Give the backbone structure.
Amino acid sequence: MMDAEQAFDAVIVGGGPAGASSAALLAQKGRNVVVLEKDIFPRYHIGESMIPFCWYPLERIGMNEKLKDAGFIKKFSVQFVSQDAGASVPFYFSRHMDHPSAQTWQVERSSFDKMMLCHACESGATIKKGVAAKEFITEAGVTKGVRARMPDGSMQDFLAPVTIDATGRDGLACSRNRWRIPDKKLKKIAIWSYYKGAKRDAGLDEGATTVAYVDDKNWFWWIPLQNDRVSVGVVGDKDYLFSDGRDLEQILDREIKKNAWIKDHVSTGKRVEPVQATGDYSYRSEYCAADGLVLTGDAFSFLDPVFSSGLFLALYSGVLAADAVDEALSVGDFGAARFTEYGEKFRGGLEAMRKLVYAFYDPNFSFGAVIKKHPHLRGDLTDCLIGNVEKDFDALFEAVSEFADIPEPVPHGNPHIAPAPA
Ligand SMILES: Cc1cc2nc3c(=O)[nH]c(=O)nc-3n(C[C@H](O)[C@H](O)[C@H](O)COP(=O)(O)OP(=O)(O)OC[C@H]3O[C@@H](n4cnc5c(N)ncnc54)[C@H](O)[C@@H]3O)c2cc1C
């Protein structure tokens, strides 16, 4: 028997952008949902730069008005800078579209994620902070909820006909079921820190994301944040970054000196946080769903962050999962097959971004070369970069394949449909 106090329409594990967007939308649809978040917010998280199409899922859950008043740095453009700082061509989103999404934000994740979770709470979701899900509760292979460690150390069951795994790169379902499959070609690591007092560009460019190249296809992100802070990180192959040892500060300093634009911009600043690193870069789960279980955001897949697609994909999949779960609740069917369309849409978005990421790392690829040869595809390329992932990009990737190897779609990631009993 379920304990009535713990019986919900959906249990959502993880209160990051994916979990919070699912929770907000389901609660707004009148569903009784609980979010279990192991940390106490605000908490630090990497991944600060949004892309324009974040606007759409945020609009669906009613967050855009709140973000307008939050004081985050406005992002109007992205630019790609060569190693000698020569080829800086800012791309302004407003030149591509006349829409509110043409301005997006650079967000301190501690503030943004807290706002998102508060919004889910204000929408009617129950939020349990400091509660870490430890295992799935299953009956005859069907997920019925999770067993979680409470802040006082006790264990408690949270039961529902459907559980959304939004645990980010921790990946509860992936780790418990060994579902995580790495994308072997995208084996990069990232090393980063934060600087205060670094140079800011003027006007609309103040909030631009800069992607700056070092030694071929290794690259920096430069993301201006509030309070005169900037997030600066370098991404590259392990062998390249660790070629002179593993001291993270030394590696970051060494790489900064290599790119003239980054070196100049950082010159007036002071590092204000320890240098951090992460590996285990890109992966996808073997399955996007199982009976009574759906995976969203990074819990399903992580993609190299060169095009800042992570927040968008988390929000996009968060609302898609909420729609699929709401439908499942309406018909009382929580079988894995119900989440087939969800998985197809999410994977479609991931594949578009993944092809572009592969192209980016190909030594023969450059945006300029593709657009020079196929100027009519500039709009398609831009659409892909800003997150308009439901568009048909066949013509674009046909053209890109003249310059770079385009990967076949990842074959896994469908729902886990258990064989019918004999
Ligand atoms: C180096 C790097 C740079 C990046 N840069 C960018 C960028 O510029 N722009 C961008 O859009 N994206 C970027 N990303 C990606 C972005 O950070 C993620 O895609 C995004 O945070 C995914 O959101 P999520 O909700 O799926 O997961 P998360 O944001 O990780 O949230 C998951 C939540 O689940 C909680 N949790 C985990 N396990 C449990 C458990 N067992 N029980 C309860 N709670 C649990 C965690 O505490 C966390 O709060 C970057 C990522 C990396 C690694």
